[in-house]
Amino acid sequence: MRKIVILTGAGISAESGLGTFRDAGGIWTKYPLEDVATPEGFARDPVLVHEFYNARRVQAAAAQPNAAHHALARLQRDWPGEVVIVTQNVDGLHEAGGARGVIHMHGTLAGALCAGCGHRWVAPETMDTTTPCPACTRPSARPDVVWFGEMPYFMDTIFDHLASADLFAAIGTSGQVYPAAGFVQEATASGARTIELNLEPSAVASNFDETRFGPASRVVPDWVSDMLGLRG
Ligand code: APR
Predict the structure, then answer these.
(1) Alpha helices in the chain (DSSP H)
(2) Is 163 annotated as a binding residue?
(3) Where, in this chain's numbering, is substrate bound (predicted)?
(4) How far, in Å, CA of 198 to CA of 75, rounded?
């Protein structure tokens, strides 16, 4: 058991005060995702989309990593093999918790992308329809976040990691959004053992060899302690 690949979702940041998407009171119960998380929605009403991401950017910047983020950073530090963290989250809490080389497959709130020339830069705290691209100067800035209908980032790298994983863990994700929800099957097909850590069974829980349910701030540190042989 040398290489561990970990997929995280919104549930790992819930106890840091960042809402999940599909739980009761979740983000998609408040905002129609078609309006704020699709290229079509951005074309229709860029002001609304900028307001939505500006608010999330401010909230994420104020949030603190919790015990689950810190535990994964510790696993990365102390595990004798490779630990790769792939996240669907657009917050920076893994890095704030000490993790390295986190693969943000859905982008980050801290990034800006030019819808015109494709240039990327560090997002200012707030953006609007006049925010110029530092490269082409056109006012076509958008959040560097992957919207529905767009291809997630780093997919080749992620599939390479899944193909060479000995252990695949999914943490705080509902298993409703592909391609991430299919990673467990990719890992299983490559011979990896698989574990789900979540508040409740996800939509793909039956695909895992092992499941542990409870709040991430408890089940993740316990799992990491088990992995590092720290619990008798
Ligand atoms: N600890 C552990 N798990 C939790 C906690 C918690 N404190 N709170 C909620 N959860 C679990 C929920 O039970 C649920 O299964 O986290 C999961 C969150 O699911 P979603 O809201 O669907 O979020 P996620 O799976 O990350 O969504 C995937 O969909 O909306 C798009 O691009 C967005 O990256 C996102 C993707």
Answers:
(1) 27-30, 33-36, 39-44, 46-62, 67-78, 93-96, 155-163, 183-189, 216-227
(2) no
(3) 53, 56
(4) 18
pLDDT, tens digit (0-9, with 9 covering 90-100), for 130-188: 999 999 999 999 999 999 999 999 999 999 999 999 999 999 999 999 999 999 999 99
Active site residues: 106
Residues 6+ apart with CB under 8 A from 27: 19, 20, 21
Our separate counts of H helices and E strands in the chain read 9, 9
* Whether the CB of 29 sits within 6 Å of ligand 1: no
- The answer to whether 107 and 146 are in contact (CB under 8 A) is yes
pLDDT beyond 90 at 26 = no
* Side-chain half-sphere CA neighbours of 141 within 13 A: 27
Pocket flag, ligand 1, residue 215 (CB < 6 Å): yes
| Eight-state DSSP code of residue 109 | E
- Report the Cα–Cα distance between both ends of the chain, in Å, rounded: 19
Neighbour order of strands in the sheet with 193-198: 103-104, 83-87, 4-8, 167-171, 193-198, 210-213
Q: Which atom belonging to ligand 1 lies closest to the Cα atom of 202?
A: 15
pLDDT digits (tens, 9 = 90+) for 84-109: 999 999 999 999 999 999 999 999 99
